[in-house]
Amino acid sequence: xxxxxxxxxxxxxxxxxxxxxxxxxxxxxxxxxxxxxxxxxxxxxxxxxxxxxxxxxxxxxxxxxxxxxxxxxxxxxxxxxxxxxx
Length: 86
Prior knowledge:
This protein has 86 residues and is an all-alpha fold. The protein contains four helices and no strands.
């Protein structure tokens, strides 16, 4: 399970990155606290639900609005692909 959480964390940092820190190696763990919960949602297999959670995180935790829905859906599918390896 730890490997899956690490894989989710990498996607969040390298590809989702709503606050634009992925060019700062020291910030690699910026989204780590969200990885376990997002992995649980991804295990449900519904990209709409996962994208909703990504939007909720950016809105409620970061104060940035919901973000780009299409981008969140693409990230959601990548997280579901990772979760399917469980």
